[in-house]
Amino acid sequence: MADPFYITTAIAYPNGKPHIGHAYEAIAADVIARFQRAEGCDVRFQTGTDEHGLKMAQKAREMGITPRELCDEMSSHFRAMCDALHISYDVFQRTTDPKHYAASQELWRRMVAKDDLYLDRYEGWYSVRDEAFYDESELIAGEGTEKLSPQGTPVEWTVEESWFFRLSKYQEPLLAYFAANPEFIQPESRRNEVIRFVEGGLRDLSVSRTSFDWGVPVPDAPGHVMYVWVDALTNYLTGLGFPEKTPEMDKWWPANIHLIGKDIVRFHTIYWPAFLMSADLALPKQVFGHGFLLHRGEKMSKSLGNVVDPLELAERFGVDSLRYFLMREVSFGNDGSYSADAIVTRCNAELANSFGNLAQRVLSLIFKNLGGVLPGREAYSENDDADLMAKRAAFGDVIRPYFEDLNFSGGLDAWMLLVFACNQYVDEQAPWALKKTNPERMNAVLANLFQCIRDLAITIRPVIPASADILLDQMGIPANDRDFAALRDDAWYERLRASGFILAQPVGVFPRLDLPAEGTAL
Ligand code: MSP
């Protein structure tokens, strides 16, 4: 039976429309999900929206609508973004779903049963933007006497009655867990930060609020709603049907990976595992904190006017150009920068000129010179072909470890090496000139290249699924022969020839992109 693989993204606050940072996370998670499916795993992929809390309530008040109206409207934009960017999610979990209330309340009850919750008074700093409590010692100086959170967001002094979670009790169990599971927090630099933070001592955490009511009601405590992070994190269980004993819970929990941004690592690697330990539930296998996407090296913000709608980018340059660029340009885990020029330059050089041209040249020659009939390889030349074909034979095993390690840019680098090798081979063998002089050799050269192009398309399919499928469709590769296992199948080419497949006139898959006009917001 195929191994189950459960992957989640963070669930975004739908207090506005999605921006490119949200798109980046969804695309990276989708590449992982598609890669694991291509590897033969049974994948479940969950995303969604985080709809409670003060930030949402305040935004709705500002707009003169109810929080629920705000959530319904904005959550639909996040879902539409996922659909437009070909994000292959299985579950889109909203936290205003009644099922989610049941899941969060059950988690709460389990924490009560463990005597991990007590009533007290919270007095301290709170950032609405981050929906986070901060210790005085963590604050940084703003303008004048103003204090800011470590993320640079405003904080306010808050005093209210609150339930507290005994986080301090979990300091040692967490450290023991980190030590026993070095893969749990990735990348390594974030793991070290978290360990240092926990070693510094954990204070109990305020986990309910009484000054507003936009949240999941705390069981048996009228007037209290849960701190938004308690319910938000629970979404990863809600989608599996928790607290019911569902087959989904059995099959998919614990998650293989929670993919999140570096700003929310603390919530996922300290609070969430502590809640799960308290509730006697297994801990996720990995939390990966990716870097931030910057616009021309600057943080995106409404005031700088550099917040770009990912759908505009996708419409302008194509979904797959955007997906390819983001996975190729940013070394995953680190911060990265994007700009329209960088997208155009990268995609034109690599997708349009290098790979697109290669495919178009080779398929056109087969169409024109051979009437679309796939050529035989009788005139294979050990001298001229062995090198390229050896690279092709090893290719799947070269690429897969990069994707397994979430090193997308490294994987695409390695992918480009075979594209380059093919282009060099075409130039050296000049199959167009062989038609008259040595048609048998032309056949072998085109057959070799056809095979390389098919493998290149299969390996890049998790990153640019739509384009890869258009190319593979043209090449007559059956839809169920596009997984990584197909790379190990030596008989496919002869099978395809024997099937009588005739290549139609090929159409280019990777158009050349134009730079946007000066002064456009992209
Ligand atoms: N609602 C919480 C997450 C709860 S998960 C149980 C939240 N929402 S968010 O809308 O602020 O962010 C959603 C995700 O997008 C987070 O993983 C965050 O790190 C990521 N990003 C937000 N801005 C980003 C960039 N500029 N670049 C890359 N990722 C970014 O946090």
Structural notes for this entry:
- With 522 residues, this protein is α/β, with parallel strands linked by helices.
- It has a domain at 346-498: Isoleucyl-tRNA Synthetase, Domain 1, CATH 1.10.730.
- It has 18 helices and 16 strands.
- It has helices spanning 20-38, 54-63, 67-84, 98-113, 171-180, 188-199, 228-238, 247-252, 265-278, 310-317, 319-329, 340-370, 382-404, 408-429, 431-437, 439-460, 465-474, 492-498, and strands at 4-9, 42-49, 91-94, 117-127, 132-134, 140-141, 147-148, 156-165, 185-186, 205-206, 208-209, 225-226, 257-261, 287-290, 293-295, 336-338.
- Helix 2 (54-63) packs across helix 3, helix 5 (171-180) runs antiparallel to helix 6 (188-199) and helix 14 packs antiparallel against helix 16 (439-460).
- The relative contact order is 0.11.
- 5'-O-[(L-methionyl)-sulphamoyl]adenosine (MSP) binds next to helix 1, helix 7 and strand 13.
- 5'-O-[(L-methionyl)-sulphamoyl]adenosine binds next to helix 1, helix 7 and strand 13.
